[in-house]
Write a structure and sequence with these properties.
The structure is a homodimer. In chain A, helix 2 runs parallel beside helix 3 (101-119). Chain A is of the alpha+beta class. The N and C termini of chain A lie close together (5 Å). The first copy, chain A, has helices spanning 17-29, 55-72, 101-119, 138-142, 145-152, 194-204, 241-253, 270-280, 292-297, and strands spanning 4-7, 10-11, 33-41, 46-53, 88-97, 123-127, 174-178, 183-189, 214-221, 226-233, 259-265. Chain A contains nine helices and eleven strands.
Amino acid sequence: MGRIIECIPNFSEGRDKEKVEKIVDVFRKAEGVKLLDYSSDADHNRTVVTVVGNPEQLEAAIIDMAERVYELIDMSTHEGGHPRMGALDVVPFVPIDGVTMDECVEIANRVGKTIGEKFNIPVYLYEKAATAVHRENLATVRKGQYEGFFKKIKEDNWAPDYGPCEVNVKGGCVAVAARQPLVAFNVNLGTDRVEIADAIAKTVRHLGGGLRFVKAMGVKLEDRNIAQVSMNLVNYEKTAVYRAFEMVKMEANRYGVSVIGSEVIGLVPMAALINSAEYYLQIENFSMDQILEKRISE
Amino acid sequence: MGRIIECIPNFSEGRDKEKVEKIVDVFRKAEGVKLLDYSSDADHNRTVVTVVGNPEQLEAAIIDMAERVYELIDMSTHEGGHPRMGALDVVPFVPIDGVTMDECVEIANRVGKTIGEKFNIPVYLYEKAATAVHRENLATVRKGQYEGFFKKIKEDNWAPDYGPCEVNVKGGCVAVAARQPLVAFNVNLGTDRVEIADAIAKTVRHLGGGLRFVKAMGVKLEDRNIAQVSMNLVNYEKTAVYRAFEMVKMEANRYGVSVIGSEVIGLVPMAALINSAEYYLQIENFSMDQILEKRISE
């Protein structure tokens, strides 16, 4: 595949289809990048884009998209159910193939610097690109949201990494990251009692003393009348999918509840599932170079 | 990936490196095809090549390779430990992406016809391309080998599908097929008793009343002093890897023997392992389009 990075920019427009298309069009027209997916949510008034490409051309396309976003979106009148801190809200870069995390950190820095200077937007680096421990977690960085940043930006700990130390009224602020691919993996329980899913989630997730790279919560699937442990695996290389799955199963046993299924939401790196196959099939000395499709695309 | 076919031609030269390179070079120089692997065995005096490409250009490259093979290899003086019926021994075409089995059957027919007419070689179609049930199995087709074909070709049931009804003394005959990808999957047992591996193999394989698309035998791994159930899964879509694995485990229980590991030999289609991950993780409604790398390479 060559050198490939994924970027999942989120911008604060999910209702005006014409504006969304104008922004997404940047990726359709860009050389060396590929638009894999985008979905707008009207309640959230937000669009999530998934795009891949070689580092250089993807970086250029993200800047072009930012320019379009700051032209079209006005945060001073924005409403929506999802937390957000700017017109361009988050820009995480994810290494996929032939690229290191360090290179993604460099790209996050270059993109952050350019957005700060060119568009006069305060930029916060998070996850692997964070410049301090308290800035690693996106939820912490974004806390207070657009409206709160006019005050937060003046606090000792919250000066931006790039750009002015003044919120851009129209464009807000932006969070730029380098991070591992995220696997959205949910486990369905043979019960309708959401409090059981909740209790399991609390033991499995990092916050509750569980697995280092698991975020989890219990949710109710109303249409199927079952409870679900909904997880984000934020580093599938270190906290494998099968490990999270088996731990949910183990905890469910405590309540005499069975695991009736699971689901993978959206895109997943091949290695995240191949790794689970290796575990269950007890495959010794497997190399990803044995995957036919990987060899073909090299 | 576009339209992709794999071909695994085997030719009867594994000692003369210069000749092997001259033949393999055809694929290095061909447009639209990619040489994934080749390995020569001196004892077998045979080389196995793995090459992929789009149907049209791969087909052309195979004919070019055949021309080189018939120039360089003389079967009338060939010796080697592996069964063989010709200078170019077998040419199986395998659908990988965006190509149907029927199209591979058509290609096998066109290639067979061309080899028959252009190089004056008797051609036998086998597996999915076979023109009669008794010709499906390669071992049955090849029985008698090069030396035996001078007589076999005159038998009622063994007239070639293409080419002359007379063995080419220098080039021999050739077997051309369309078939599913083959997965070479071995399960290691916690015992050194090869007769247990053999007994398990007999129950798991099709021949012994076991799984439809499993070929299996017991072997001894001398260096590790353990027994192994060595399998070829000839249709992983219909007989899944996990099913063969679990069946070996179940039969091993009978002898109080544990499964200590497994191995995948050579290349394996991504779907063969993803499918096992889906089974063990109980993933509902998974689509291969959710695999990031698949989406990127499309």
